Amino acid sequence: MELDALRHANFSKLSTAVGDWTTMITKLEELKEDARTQLDGAAKKANWEGVNATVTKSFILKTATEFADAVTEATTIRNILRDTHDELVDYKDRLGTAIENGLKKNLTVVGTGDGGFAVTMNIHPDRAAEGTEVPDHTPEDAENLRDEVQRILQGATESDRTASDALVAIVTQSPYGFSDASYADRDAAAKAIKDAERYANLIKNKGDDMSPEEFDALNRDLAQYRDDPLFQERFATTLGPRGLLDFWADLSDPSDGGDLQRARREQLGDFQQNLSMTLAGATQSDSPAMQRWQDDMVRLGEERIQTRGANVYGFQIMSNLMRVGDYNDEFLNKYGNALVKTEKDMKIPSHYWVAGLGGPSVPKMNFMGEEFGRDPMTGFMSALSNSPEASTQFFNTTQPQDNAQYVLKDREVIEDTPLDDGDANHAREATGKALVAATTGVNPNDPDARPVPHSPQNREALDRSLRFLSEAGDDFPSEMRDDMAAVLVNYGDETHHTASSQADDANDPRLLDRHHLMEVTKQVSRDQNAYGILNDGLNQEMVRDIHADKPSDPKETLQRAGATVGFLEEARYQALKTDKEDPSWDAKWAYHGFGGAVNFIPVVGDAAQRGVDALAYQWQLDEQDRINQETQRENGKTFTARENQLQALADQWSAANPGHTNNRYTLTQEINEAAFAGNDRAQGLAGDQ
User: Fold this and answer.
1) Cα separation of 16 and 78, whole Å?
2) Nearest in space to 235 (alpha carbons), one of 268, 267, 266, 281
3) Which DSSP state fits 455?
4) Where are the alpha helices (DSSP H) in 370-443?
5) Long-range contacts of 42-51 (CB under 8 A, 24+ apart)
6) d(CA 188, CA 195)
7) 532 CB-near residues (< 8 Å, 6+ apart)
8) In sequence order, which residues have a C-beta less than 8 Å from that of residue 447 and are 6 or more positions away?
9) What is the pLDDT of residues 547-587, one digit of tens each?
10) Burial bucket for residue 15 (CB in 10 Å: 0-12, 13-18, 19+)
11) The pTM is what?
């Protein structure tokens, strides 16, 4: 900032702008409240169908959120303008004071016309009027005045420049909407941008040759800024996609001479998490620079990154930095489609990911778990599981390839922990969680998540996944059994309705494919915990159905409960028959509540919950009674495998339908007959596989 510009500045317009933004905030707050109560509240309560359920509802909910972001952005802009106004007024006052103090020593400050300034004598003693006493000054006085004015001008320039940078960064965060970046003043926003550039340049210039102390500071501040939009966007775009990939490849390669692998190995997992959170937040920015970053990262996925002792793919590196955090949905789907296409082109991707074709060894790139991080699908699927909408889109994508068919059925198993052959496959574990997110709309990694209404796209993902997983037969991935149990429990109404149905009906929207459901239920029942999740959840659904559903004939809920029990028993029998050589879990049955599914089970009422508790106990007795029984079924034998459970269901029906003429004996007889019939129908479904 030039001397005369600050000396003669009029900040009244800036002050007016601060006032205008303050008024705007008040108005936006009112609109925000209206949007929350009228737009958002009404949209969530409405019964949406068809295109409205996806396009219109999503638009309204997003619009309601935009009003809240508008308040945040307006407040941040007002805070920055107010802070900058106050600082510039202070710098102007300080400049005036410095000039006045200089005059007392016969020194004045004048602009030189080229942006600079000079300190000279105000009145030369030889030209002073007769009788005028000219104050003395020393060369040091002139130097001190020069330095003080220089500091003031530099401070004013910095205040003005950083305010401009922060305002531009905030506005470009979301060119077609509003940013949720919130800052109390200009200094906080300016510091975030400055720190982001400093750390990005540290990585670009030193990489894993940075000192342990520099690494500690970087790791600490990444954690501090993990929710700061300006820092995240500036850090990612300054470092650039290739800079990021080169850095992580070098950090992972222990042969390149870098000291961090040895000096800070125990902290690398935390660092990986902090870096991942930062990058995930950065992808939420709509700035042009960040859009280019995302496109370039997808393009670099199939390129090889060479280090001193290793050669790895961009997909392998980036996927390891996607294990945590909420990545942008559009980026995830572009990335995922490109990853699947690359693997399909490879034919046998394990030969490339693990260097099975004689290339250099692939280093361990993941420090957050035991597996090496060589299979890029693991990290990508972990990212999908944190973003249910993106996961739903991915599993429903059929062009340029059918993603669900590939990851659920066709993809080969890639061993990523060669020192432990008995472990589960991590990519399949992550895929199972992503599938949960896709079908239920619930983030399986969020302990506070609760069931949400299903969209048509969620249902489409469910139907497609049931098809592909049922086609796998006994090759159904064991890692996904508990995940599919949670999914079926989340769709408890549809699952119970289908398991108890007497025939296929193309006009019944609640009906799942019965053959697919039978096979998947069988596969789920091969695992004790998954079996427990499924049965525990459907116990709750059957009780809810008895208390809440109002069919024209109330006996329907009793008979449906029996039919579903028979269906589940047949699935269990088929599972034990498949694993008859090793029915180990059955021999050590222990009921433990199966709390892992609590986030996916729709809440039942208080009266129904009491029935659920009683039913769970009776079901537990049945499971304990059968531990020493043979798995072979005798045709024609009375259905007794779940007699305690059936009795409890009959009692629940009686309690929910007071005054009904049937007594306990006849109700129990009726539900047993329904269970046997359901079991018989399920045998037919299993036989068709």
Assistant:
1) 11
2) 281
3) P
4) 376-385, 388-396, 403-405, 426-440
5) 50/456
6) 11
7) 591, 592, 594
8) 599
9) 988 899 999 999 999 999 999 999 998 988 888 776 555 55
10) middle
11) 0.78
